[in-house]
């Protein structure tokens, strides 16, 4: 993970890094490596995707000098503390500053599975003169999924023992609580207008999001001459008793959790260790979160009082749930976490069953639901290869198979190559499960032949050596979905088709940093590249060439530049999307599927 030391390396890299960590519940932190919140979804305290605390300003008053320690851009000023940064350690969430007369460090950690953020300052006064050390919260209320310019913010606030409570939304009953035992709260509110956040969208346009912040007051303490003082600030969305809190325990548990995550991973696999730590921020075993900043969880989906609202959310999140189920292998199985993988699959299946309550009329939604079910079957098979407990999954797999080979379902689904490939793969998984327990299903032979013939005779274009994405395509082009005919548990094509198709993928979709979704020669090509497909590409290559040290070395050379990019722009992770022209796309920080596929990729190459 990224480290900076003044005089050793440059801060430029830290400015580019997307730096995130979380409480593994609903709250997270996401900023640049220099604690700049220049992107709309950045902030120091984000709950359910809503930024509540944008950042903190540390203000130092000593002798006749005043220092404002923050990274901030408005329409009239640009405040920076770069020259005072002496050290950054993003693995330890540690930042060090020195203004000459006074030096301090700032260390941060969430309490595990709580919404409590602890910030610990160790302040050293190097002068004999007393210094005033102030911490000024910059309050906002921003939904990163609804990035509209806010009007002047006017939040209600009240002073409480050891701090303040700021009401952000009466409608949603959301507040932010700030407390400190070592500092005194002083209410001197002021508004900070036209704060700018710059970011690059996926269509490579530069956007500027502008908002107003509230500096609702400050926490203040005196640092006596030559004194070293430890100060803690606690941030939460609930009332907290700071006398009951132990910062030492919070930091200890945070370090212990990271040690557990990388236990058993060879120290030489630095990138894999970093990916494992970062992916732990998205603990799908309990939370089912696809990315940071957290938008919401699905834990109350079966709450009868909220069922209608929750099921509507579930409809909107079918693709997110599909990414979650696809990530199970890299998230858990590759790291030997079989119990966690099983628990997550059970939970996913509950959502699949809950979705049956809907009468789905929209064909696009119907296909998304089918993809969720079929990727569930693929993940089941990955677990069965580690733990052959077929009886746990047989009925659910059978139910899914019959739901997609139903006559009416076929008419809706079997014009897309991804669905057809996944369906044929699922049937083969189901047949293999039956063989293990000495049973058979006579319908499957017919259905398997039907899908195989459909792929070979209808989807395959011999002259272009590609698979159609959709049967109705009048001008077929190389597409990412055709890779699944090669890379699932069971390949869907035989004879010379695999090598021809793989050659096309290499020539038209492959780049060192990921795969295009359509041919580079197609007018539909956006220039965007996705690392999440690289594991499928490497698996197809190893399947075609055989898994040997030589073939693994060749495959490694294909992805070497991508693997070396781990931690370069996302601390401990990998960017979700690249641009083939070298433009850095500002996507969300940790994307579960992308990081999980990188872990799966490591597993194939070692």
Question: Can you characterise this structure?
Answer:
- With 606 residues, the chain is of the alpha+beta class.
- Helix content is 34%, strand content 25%.
- It is built from 17 helices and 27 strands.
- Strands 2, 3, 4, 5, 6, 13, 17, 18, 19 and 20 form a ten-stranded antiparallel beta sheet that branches. Strands 1-9-10-11-12-21-16-15-14 form a nine-stranded antiparallel beta sheet.
- Helix 14 runs antiparallel to helix 15.
- It is elongated, with a radius of gyration of 26 Å.
Shape: elongated
For the CA atoms, what is the radius of gyration? Answer: 26 Å
- Spans of at least 5 consecutive residues whose pLDDT stays below 50 are 147-151
- Helical content stands at 25-40%
Sheet with the most strands, sense and barrel status: 10 strands, antiparallel
Task: Please tally the helical runs, counting DSSP H or I stretches of 4 or more residues.
Answer: 17
Average pLDDT confidence is 92
Q: Quick one: how many beta strands?
A: 27
Our measurement of the CA-to-CA distance between the termini, rounded to an integer number of angstroms, reads 21 Å
Features:
elongated; 17 helices; alpha+beta; 27 strands; 9-stranded antiparallel sheet; 606 residues; 10-stranded antiparallel sheet
Layout: helices, strands, pairs:
Elements: E1 3-5, H1 12-16, E2 18-22, E3 27-32, E4 43-47, E5 50-62, E6 65-69, E7 72-73, E8 78-79, E9 85-89, E10 94-98, E11 102-110, E12 117-125, E13 131-143, E14 156-160, E15 163-169, E16 174-179, E17 184-186, E18 190-200, E19 206-215, E20 218-223, E21 228-236, H2 247-261, H3 270-279, H4 307-316, H5 318-326, H6 328-331, H7 338-355, H8 363-384, H9 394-405, H10 407-413, H11 417-436, H12 443-459, E22 460-461, E23 466-467, H13 484-487, H14 497-508, E24 510-511, E25 514-515, E26 528-529, H15 534-545, H16 549-563, E27 578-579, H17 592-605
Antiparallel strand pairs: 1-9, 2-3, 3-4, 4-5, 5-6, 5-13, 7-8, 9-10, 10-11, 11-12, 12-21, 13-19, 13-20, 14-15, 15-16, 16-21, 17-20, 18-19, 22-23, 24-25, 26-27
Helix pairs in contact: 3-17, 5-8, 7-8, 8-9, 8-11, 9-11, 11-12, 14-15, 15-16, 15-17
């Amino acid at each position: 993970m990224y480290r900076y030391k003044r005089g050793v390396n440059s801060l430029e890299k830290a400015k580019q890094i997307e730096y995130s960590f979380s409480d593994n519940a609903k709250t997270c932190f996401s900023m640049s490596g220099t604690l700049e919140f220049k992107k709309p979804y950045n902030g120091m305290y984000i709950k359910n995707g809503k930024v509540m605390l944008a950042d903190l300003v540390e203000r130092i008053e000593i002798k006749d000098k005043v220092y404002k320690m923050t990274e901030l851009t408005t329409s009239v000023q640009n405040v920076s503390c770069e020259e005072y940064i002496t050290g950054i350690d993003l693995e330890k969430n540690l930042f060090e500053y020195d203004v000459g007369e006074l030096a301090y460090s700032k260390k941060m950690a969430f309490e595990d599975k709580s919404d409590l953020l602890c910030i610990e300052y160790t302040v050293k006064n190097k002068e004999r003169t007393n210094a005033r050390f102030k911490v000024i919260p910059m309050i906002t209320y921003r939904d990163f999924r609804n990035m509209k310019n806010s009007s002047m913010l006017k939040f209600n606030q009240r002073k409480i023992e050891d701090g303040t409570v700021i009401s952000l939304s009466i409608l949603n009953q959301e507040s932010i609580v700030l407390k400190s035992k070592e500092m005194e709260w002083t209410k001197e509110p002021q508004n900070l207008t036209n704060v700018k956040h710059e970011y690059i969208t996926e269509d490579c346009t530069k956007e500027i999001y502008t908002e107003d912040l509230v500096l609702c007051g400050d926490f203040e303490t005196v640092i006596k001459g030559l004194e070293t003082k430890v100060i803690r600030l606690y941030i939460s969305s609930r009332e907290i008793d700071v006398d009951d809190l132990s910062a030492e325990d919070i930091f200890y548990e945070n370090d212990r959790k990271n040690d557990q995550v990388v236990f058993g991973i060879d120290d030489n696999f630095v990138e894999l260790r970093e990916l494992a730590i970062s992916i732990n921020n998205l603990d799908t075993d309990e939370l089912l979160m696809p990315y940071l900043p957290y938008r919401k969880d699905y834990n109350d989906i079966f709450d009868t009082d909220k069922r209608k609202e929750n099921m509507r959310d579930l409809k909107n999140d079918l693709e997110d749930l599909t990414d979650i189920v696809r990530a199970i292998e890299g998230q858990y199985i590759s790291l030997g976490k079989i119990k966690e993988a099983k628990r997550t699959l059970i939970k996913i299946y509950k959502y699949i069953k809950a979705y049956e309550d809907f009468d789905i009329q929209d064909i696009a939604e119907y296909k998304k639901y089918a993809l969720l079910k079929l990727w569930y079957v693929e993940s089941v098979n990955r677990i069965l290869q580690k733990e052959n407990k077929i009886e746990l999954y047989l009925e659910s797999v059978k139910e899914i198979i019959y739901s997609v080979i139903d006559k009416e379902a076929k008419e809706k689904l079997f014009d897309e190559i991804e669905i057809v490939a996944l369906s044929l793969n699922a049937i083969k998984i189901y047949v293999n499960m039956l063989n293990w327990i000495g049973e058979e299903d006579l319908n499957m032979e017919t259905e398997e032949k039907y899908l195989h013939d459909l792929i070979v005779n209808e989807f395959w274009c011999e002259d272009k050596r590609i698979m159609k994405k959709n049967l109705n395509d009048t001008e077929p082009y190389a597409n990412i979905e055709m890779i699944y005919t090669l890379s699932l548990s069971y390949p869907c094509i035989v004879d010379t088709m695999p090598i021809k198709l793989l050659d096309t993928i290499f020539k038209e979709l492959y780049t060192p940093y990921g795969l295009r979704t359509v041919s580079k020669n197609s007018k539909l090509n956006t220039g965007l590249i996705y690392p999440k497909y690289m594991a499928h590409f490497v698996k197809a290559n190893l399947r075609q060439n055989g898994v040997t040290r030589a073939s693994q070395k060749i495959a490694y050379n294909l992805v070497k530049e991508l693997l070396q990019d781990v931690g370069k722009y996302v601390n401990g992770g990998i960017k979700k999307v690249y641009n083939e022209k070298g433009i850095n796309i500002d996507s969300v920080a940790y994307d579960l599927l992308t990081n999980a596929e990188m872990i799966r990729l490591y597993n194939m190459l070692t």
